[in-house]
Amino acid sequence: MTTARARGLGVEIRRLRKDAGLRLEELADVCGWSRATFGRIESGEKVPTDIEIAIILGALGIRGSERKRLLELAHDAHQTHWWEVGRPGLPSQLVSLLDFERRATKITDLALGFVPGLLQTADYARAVMRNGVLDEEVVESRVSLRMGRQRVLTRARPVVLHAFLDESILWRPVGGPRVMAEQLRRVAKWGRHDHITVRVIPYSAGVHHALHGNSLILEFARQRPIVHLEHRRAGLFLDDPDEIFPFVESATSVEEKALSPAESAELILTRAKAMENSHDQ
Predict the structure, then answer these.
(1) What's the rounded mean pLDDT across residues 98-105?
(2) N or C: which end of the chain has fewer CB within 10 A?
C-alpha cells in the first residue's frame, strides 16, 4: 500500500539525487539495482528496507541529522498518518507538498482563515508569514517558494483548482486595506481561468463543514488522493481511503452551500472596492 510518507520519502530521494547531479539510472547502478526498482522507490510504490535506504544515503553521501531524519521517515513509511511539527529549515512535508501539487491533476482547497496559498499575492503571503513569528530571512524565502508553487496553475497543462473561501476571509484586511484589495482583485482574476473555480461560502450559509478547519484535497491520475491539514507550524497528511472520505464529503457539502462563481466574483470585487475606499480615507 502506497502511503504519503512513502511518496514523501521518494520525493526527498529524488531531490537529493538531482542535487548530486545524478540521473536515476546512474544512482540505481551505483546501488546495484535496476532503473525500474529505483523508479518505484522514487514514486513511493516501493518502501526501501533499512539496509536499502542506508545504501542510498551512503551513495549520496548523506550524513548527520539529515541521514537520521530520512532513516526515520523510511522506517515509518508504511504508516498511513504523517504528522510533522515545525522544525528549523524546510519541513519534509513542505518539500513533499510542493511535489504533490506538481503531480496532482486536481486540487480542492477549503479555506477558512486565509486566501488559499496558490492564489496569494507576495505581499499578502508576506503578511501571513510574518504573523507566524518567522525570521525575516525565512519569511522572504517562504514567500518566494509560495510564488513558485503557483506555476502549477500557469504551466502548459495546469492543475485544476477548486477553491472555496469562507466569506470572513474577504473582510479581514491582512497586510492592511491596500494589500487586501490587491489580493482580492488577484483572486477574482484567477477565477476567470477555465481551470480555476473560486467560490465563496457566504455568511448566510450558516454552519458548514469548512468551519471545522482548512483542508487540501489532492487528486492524482494513477495514485490515490491525499488530504493535507495544516495548523500553524504543524501539518498532517492523510492517505487512508476511510479517513479521506469525510473530507471529500465535506467538499461536496460546501459546494452545495457556496455562491456560484459569478456571484462569488461579484462579492470579491465589491469587497476589494470597499478595501480600496477604506485605504483612501
Answers:
(1) 93
(2) C
